[in-house]
Amino acid sequence: MSGPKVVRVVTREERIENCEGLLAQLDAAIRALKADAARLNDSEGEGLARSTVRRDALLELVRTDNFDQAEVQIRQEIGFILSKRSEAIERAASAAAVARRQLSCQRHAATTLIKELERRAPEAHAELAAGLRQIANQAKVTITAESMLAKAMLALSRAAPAAHLSEEQQALARSLQATQDPGIGGNGWQSLAAQDKRIVDLQHQLAQIEVLKGSEVTIAFSQRLDAVELEADGPVRNMKLDALVIEVAAAVAGLRRLSGLVETAQAALAEIEVLGSLTELASVRKALEAAIADQNEMRLTQVTADAIQAVGLVRAARAAMSRREAILAGLATLGYQVNDNMATAWVDEGRVVLRKADADTHGLEIASAPDAQRLQVRTVAFSSGLAAAANLAAETAWCGDFSRLQEQLRQDASDLAIERALPVGAVPLKVVQEPAAVQERAAAAHTLKTNQVR
């Protein structure tokens, strides 16, 4: 048995609301996956976004009051969906990077072959040269380009003696000789387009930007990369390439940050929506929707932080109310006198005093911070002249009531846990006014406060 206690209260209502908030975040993640999968034509992502089996199972955990499991598994599912969204984006970026590399290879090979055709006999290969010029300026990979490049390689398969060739021409000669290998066929042109690793990495990063933000954003970078690829190897080319690597990497990092911010903002917006139409959240919701549409990183960061704080305040206020209501309702069933003014007195005074109808000398004091997350509960006396035995008996009786209150809350999927406690009789009972006097004073103070506001 214990005397004065500090207890922690968690109600079924707040657990449900927490789970509803997490489910709203999950729904936001699923919507984002669905939108990206549809935009990127990703069948795996679309199939996962359409499936409701997992969400239904999580909802059932909430309905059956398995809140601990529900919260853990919903968070895990959110992480899983977000990872699948990242995978869908990466698949699209990888495919776009392959297309970019193929295009770059075709254009580079075409440019190299044009030079060789013009060096040898421009008039004899005028038709091939015209086709190669189209390839050198093309914006997309084409099958006809591969055929044209193969023809050009075959047409130049008889190389001039190596002694009369430059290093570039000797490399071309080796590639031309490779086309005569039956195992290689007409794809020898591909060896003309061996790329710097920096260029390969740039193509992948530009593909990521394209997938995240659209091809328009990559135009300037792509034009600079095309120009650098056509330059001869040397310090100037390397300097330009290194500068481009730094700039593109910064752009990708910025887009990833922005994507994460939008993700967080959408989750916050989903939580606001599940809380309902609340006046205190209306302006926050409007600002959040505008920030998501505008996608300014600084603004999005600030507005999202404001939204998360506002949601937290609303949830805290609701949770505090549910805790006070749960404790007072539970005590009422145990015979304590509870009325409508007590919840108000508790909020205004930070404490409330109750007693049983058949207990004229002792009562119960509950004190807490406004959030009512932790309560100080203790037996109190209404007079200083009471016998020590009577005080001890009152504390002992409260211990039994506390155990019954715990069980009631447990049956309702709530929890009342002791964090600290003193033994029965360890400290003298606090002497307080009877509940009626306390409530009258609190009611008068509340009326005065209301009139002042008006």
SS element count, helices = 15
Order of helix and strand elements from N to C terminus: EHHHHHHHHHHHHHEEEHEEH
Q: Any idea what the CATH architecture of the domain at 2-9 and 320-431 is?
A: 2-Layer Sandwich
Mean pLDDT: 85
Principal-axis shape: rod-shaped
Class inferred from helices and paired strands: alpha+beta
CATH top level assignment of the domain at 2-9 and 320-431: Alpha Beta
Distance between the termini: 49 Å
Proportion in helices: 55-70%
Radius of gyration of CA atoms, rounded to a whole number: 37 Å
Query: Main beta sheet, described?
Result: 6 strands, mixed
CATH topology of the domain at 2-9 and 320-431: TATA-Binding Protein
User: What ranges have pLDDT less than 50 throughout 5 or more consecutive residues?
Assistant: 159-165, 175-185
DSSP strand content? 5-15%
> Number of DSSP strands?
6
Describe the overall structure:
- It is a single chain.
- This protein has 454 residues and is of the alpha+beta class.
- The protein has a domain at 2-9 and 320-431: TATA-Binding Protein (2-Layer Sandwich).
- 69% of the residues lie in helices and 9% in strands.
- It has helices at 12-40, 43-50, 53-63, 67-120, 126-136, 143-155, 167-178, 197-213, 219-230, 235-275, 279-294, 297-333, 341-349, 388-411, 435-453, and strands at 2-10, 351-354, 362-368, 374-381, 415-423, 430-431.
- Strands 1, 2, 3, 4, 5 and 6 form a six-stranded mixed sheet that branches.
- It is rod-shaped and about 120 Å long.
- Residues 159-165 and 175-185 have low confidence and may be disordered.
